[in-house]
Structure formats: structure tokens, C-alpha cells
Design brief:
The complex is a heterodimer.
Chain A (H helix, E strand, L loop, with lengths): L11 E9 L7 H24 L2 E6 L2 E7 L3 H8 L4 E2 L2 E2 L1 E8 L2 H10 L12 E4 L2 E9 L2 E6 L7 E5 H11 L5
Antiparallel strand pairs in A: 1-3, 1-6, 2-3, 4-5, 7-8, 8-9, 9-10
Chain B lengths: L3 E5 L9 H11 L3 E5 L4 E3 L2 E9 L4 H11 L5 E5 L3 H9 L5 E3 L11 H10 L2 E5 H6 L3 H20 L3 E4 L11 H8 L6 H8 L1 H6 L11
Parallel strand pairs in B: 1-2, 2-4, 4-5, 5-6, 6-7, 7-8
Antiparallel strand pairs in B: 3-4
Helix pairs in contact in B: 3-4, 4-6
Classes of the chains: A alpha+beta, B alpha/beta.
Chain lengths: ~170, ~210
């Protein structure tokens, strides 16, 4: 099959999306289904056929989503309605839109990497319960309750934990 | 004018502490938040206002709760009910926001209530969590109801507020994303900016009609 000349190819736009919470392992195919479902649900089949969303790549916290030029707004609005992939709760935050994937890759590189897990405590106490720390980024700290039940993620700050520690310190220290 | 999310539900209602909400809200472009059942404070440069949501269908209980909060600076919201209840709630001094219009009867918020809301400076809330989280008929009905509210707002100019009802940081949306979502309701940028400042409009004291300059 011969390749179409550039003037006859359809023009595309690429949207850089940040995946929250950080550290969530998402299959790009599942993410595509979630985005496609959101687009179809919000704008209908006819518009989805015009937008033609596609997940191009997922690198770390970032995902690049492709659409047809002129439909970026519709795609970003639909992306903001994605709340979960399979049973995993996520949020997709639109960072930038570009005509090339290369410029979005540059954008990804310019974002500072969050501090590694080595700087984090392994355990934390909050509201009288013990939690395992799963992620930290500056003041932000994500924890999961220890045990087999109720192991959902809590989103806290280091100040929340410090304050809790301060109240649990016995008198005289 | 402050860009305010008119309702978030921090821990223990949700899975996020109020400090974390403030941190994330600052990154997403907000200046202030109304946190339900949380004392007022300022974290990370974000003003956190205390808020309560009264969910009772009895006006007597609404009056009792509003009296309890009088003078505390708490943003008082009332969940919408039938037309009579909404008129009574909007007409009662101390109520700041009428919420949940999308879930009320079709005629629950009519032109009379709209006029009263404008006169008494009571805001009508637009719940973005329905636009984000709901699918199908539920979302269609909410869009239809809010478009109807916006027709009345255009005519009577009562304040509007925008709420994400976030119980988690994952439910928060950036100001730019909210602007996109509001475009589904036919709101332009100026409308959205005005709605973001709706909490300030209903809680700040009314400037005097006549000011003595010398």
C-alpha cells in the first residue's frame, strides 16, 4: 500500500495527560477503552468518529492521547470525565496539546521528577490507625491502611502525619 | 474575586485530608475552597472556608440549623426540595447556597424562586460531580436542568457557584477543565469566572448603597 502524501493525510493533535494517583500501573489498552467510552458517552458515536481518540504511549505518569485536529477541546472535556479504568480510580489531568509527539516528550522531560521512595518513611500514623506509605512527593504523601480489609488509599500531607505524631508523643518529651 | 470550589468533602467524609485538598487545589488554579464540616483555616495559601449542607425537607429544621450557624462565618447550603421548600429556603436570611437543583423536581426552581434568589443574594449551585461521574440519562437530565437554571440566571442575575463535591483529590478538576465542562451547559468564560466568585458574592457583606466621602 502506498503512503499518502503529507498534504492528503489527516491532521492530528496530541494531548499530554498526567495520570493521578502517581505510581498507578495502567494498561494503555484499558485506558484507551476508558477514554473512548468517555468520548462516546459525552459526545455520541458520530462525534467520536470525528475525534478518533487513541492512546499513543504511556510513560511513567504521562499519557499521550491523539485526536483529529480541531477536536482537542472535545477530547479534553471528555478526558476530564474519566474517573476509573476497570476498578482502579484515576484522574486524568490535561497538561498540554501539541502538533507533534516530540514536543510533548520535551515537556515530560522538563517536569521535575518527584523524590524517590527512599526519602519516605515506611509507616505512618493518622487518625489513630497505622498506615503504610505508598507514595510521596514533596509535602504530599499517600498511604494505605495496613491489613487485609479497608485497604483503600488516603491522600494526606506530611503535616497531617506530623500533627498526629505530636498528639501521640507522651508528656515530658 | 477569588476562584472558589464551593464544596469539597475532606476526611472523614472522603479519603483526603483538608491540607492535601488545599495543596492540590492550589496546583489546579484555585484560591479558596469550601470544606464541609471542617473548621476554617488557610493552608498553602488557599483559604479554606467552613461549610455545612442542610439536607432536611423540613423548613423548621433548616431555620434551627441556620440560627445555630449565625455569625460563625460558615457557608450555609440547603439541599433543594420541592418548589415551596425552595422558596422558603431562598427567602430565609442566612442561607447562602441552594444545592442539588439537578436532583429536584422539574418545577422546583421556577422564575419566582429565581427572583427571590436574586433579591436575597442566594446562590444556586452547579454540581460538577454529576457532569463528571454520571453517564447516560442522569447526566442528560442534569445538563437539561442546569441549562434551564442558566436561562433564569440570565434573566434575574442571581449568583451561581461551582462545586466538584470532591471526596478525593482524584475528584478535583483544574479550573481549565471546569471551564470545559461548563461549556456543556452553554456557559462562556465570563459566566464561569462569575460563578467561581459566587461564594464570595453571597458571603461578603453588601456594600452600602450610599457612601459618604467627606
Amino acid at each position: 500500500m502506498t503512503v499518502r502524501p503529507p498534504t492528503l493525510r489527516e491532521k492530528r493533535r496530541y494531548v499530554l495527560v498526567q495520570l493521578d494517583p502517581p505510581g498507578t500501573a495502567i494498561d494503555p489498552k484499558e485506558l484507551y477503552y476508558a477514554i473512548s467510552d468517555a468520548v462516546t458517552s459525552l459526545w455520541g458515536d458520530a462525534a467520536a468518529g470525528v475525534i478518533v481518540p487513541a492512546v499513543i504511549c504511556a510513560e511513567g505518569r504521562y499519557v499521550v492521547v491523539r485526536c483529529r485536529r480541531g477536536t482537542e477541546r472535545e477530547l479534553t472535556v471528555a478526558i476530564s470525565t474519566v474517573t476509573q479504568v476497570r476498578d482502579t480510580r484515576i484522574a486524568l489531568r490535561t497538561v498540554a496539546t501539541s502538533g507533534t509527539i516530540e514536543s510533548l516528550r520535551d515537556r515530560m522531560k522538563t517536569d521535575p521528577a518527584p523524590p524517590g521512595p527512599a526519602a519516605l518513611p515506611e509507616e505512618a500514623r493518622f487518625a489513630g490507625n497505622g498506615y503504610a506509605v505508598v507514595h510521596g512527593d514533596g509535602q504530599k504523601i499517600d498511604v494505605i491502611e495496613k491489613g487485609f480489609k479497608n485497604t483503600h488509599r488516603l491522600y494526606l500531607t506530611t503535616e497531617d502525619l506530623e500533627k498526629n505524631h505530636a498528639t501521640t508523643i507522651p508528656d515530658g518529651i | 474575586m477569588k476562584i472558589t470550589d464551593a464544596a469539597v468533602c475532606p476526611f472523614p467524609h472522603g479519603d483526603t485530608s483538608v491540607r492535601r485538598f488545599a495543596l492540590e487545589a492550589a496546583a489546579l488554579g484555585f484560591d479558596s475552597l469550601v470544606a464541609l464540616d471542617t473548621p476554617p483555616a488557610t493552608y498553602s495559601g488557599i483559604e479554606v472556608k467552613s461549610g455545612i449542607l442542610i439536607r432536611t425537607p423540613s423548613m423548621k429544621e433548616v431555620i434551627a440549623q441556620v440560627k445555630r450557624e449565625a455569625g460563625s462565618g460558615t457557608v450555609v447550603s440547603v439541599k433543594a426540595g420541592d418548589a415551596g421548600f425552595n422558596r422558603a429556603a431562598v427567602g430565609y436570611r442566612g442561607v447562602h447556597i441552594l444545592r442539588g437543583i439537578h436532583a429536584a423536581d422539574r418545577n422546583a426552581f421556577d422564575h419566582v424562586t429565581a427572583k427571590m434568589a436574586a433579591d436575597n443574594r442566594v446562590a444556586v449551585d452547579i454540581d460538577l460531580s454529576v457532569l463528571i461521574g454520571a453517564r447516560g440519562v442522569l447526566r442528560q437530565r442534569a445538563i437539561q436542568r442546569y441549562r434551564d437554571v442558566l436561562v433564569l440566571e440570565d434573566r434575574f442575575e442571581f449568583p451561581l457557584t461551582l462545586s466538584t463535591y470532591a471526596r478525593s483529590v482524584l475528584d478535583l478538576r483544574a479550573v481549565r477543565e471546569i471551564t470545559g465542562l461548563c461549556s456543556l451547559l452553554g456557559m462562556d468564560l465570563a459566566d464561569v469566572e462569575r460563578a467561581f466568585g459566587g461564594v464570595g458574592a453571597v458571603t461578603d457583606p453588601v456594600p452600602p448603597a450610599v457612601r459618604v466621602v467627606s
